[in-house]
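USER:
I wish I could look at a protein chain and see how it folds. I am handing you a single protein, as its sequence and its fold in token form. As I understand it, each token names a local backbone shape. I hope you can help me see how the letters and the tokens relate. The protein I mean follows directly.
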Amino acid sequence: MLYKSCVLAGLAAAHAFQAGAPMPLATQATSTSLQQLSMAAKQVPHGGTLVDLFAPAADRAAIAASADLTIDITERQSCDVELLCNGGLSPLTGFLNEQAYDGVVNDMKLPDGNILGLPIVMDTNDDSIKPGMKLLLRYSGTDMALMTVESKWVPDKPLETVKCYGVGTIEHPGVRMVAMERGKYYIGGSVQGLGVPTREFPCATPKEVREMLPDDADVVAFQCRNPVHRAHYELFTRALDAPNVGDDAVVLVHPTCGPTQEDDIPGAVRHKTYEVLIEETKDTASGKRTKWAYLPYSMHMAGPREAIQHMLIRKNFGCTHFIIGRDMAGSKSSVDGEDFYGAFEAQDFAKKIGPELGVTPVPSLNLVCAMKEGDEFEYMDPDTAKSQGFEVKKLSGTKFRKMLRDGDEIPEWFAFKSVVDVLRAEWK
């Protein structure tokens, strides 16, 4: 496996859970003035409190006017700001300061001992920004938050990438983002929420999602960044029958809507595929046990560490369980196509960290499509299909995309017709 020694070194460092001496952190939810929101789901938020950083509507104009400097942030940064403000990254109340950043990079631990998979930082190239300044964070014309700068430093990016991504090569998309997209400085400090931009995906807050979840049943989260095809659908609906999932559980399908890999299907197209699938399946037995929401999150493709970040965020949205797929949040080398992570590294890591995090990982099922009589098909485990003599159907993603481009008929056993129709119309 490509750069295996670097991957193992990075993961070994991530396993070293030694929090060390307490460190001051103004960006953790320790203030008694924070609003304690009522919980509709049975899952307790990470750190015990679901924070809400949005200022009262009547005060927002004055807060914005108090800024020393207005900076236009990127889409990726806007996702972090939104999740900080709505509580998706509880217990944080702002971007990490230098000491907290060091702790998360090295040990995946905040100063209070809570887990954080990846550091949440604001970056800049502006030499004029100093601690004590107030920055108005604006995205796409929307004033999103006022940040009070408490810490500014030049990060050790090579160390960050090896610890967090397991590798230091820019062939990895997350490493490339840290090295080439982020500015030379990181700045930490508290934020006050002012507004939310209009996105292609309507993103419900953790409080809103919790209100649509049962308060007495398990909630199994499913993360995706691509259209949902038959195998995915079977995977997340059958996860409700896993032995470590309680009766009457529901699944929350929670796709990310922020930046992903360069060659992924655009967000607006993905959103349309989800909406037609919701409509198509809403009256089925599985559809009635499936909830949907969208997450303003930018993918890092950080493998095992990002799997923990996904679990933590979904915990704040009310989920008790999280489906861990093969090579979760993984990526391949842009040079030779080798995987950066092993197929089960994220699953193994989640099993190790899950009990401390308070989220139960549900490994994804290994399902194949078995053709029965005529056009009848069923998804089942490979051994069952083999023992019953069924033909197993396979279609690679590369072949599927070629069939779409060529106008070929896509088999029903592979993809929902409604999803295929959207992809044909919207994506080239």
User: Anything to note?
Assistant: The longest strand covers residues 142-153.
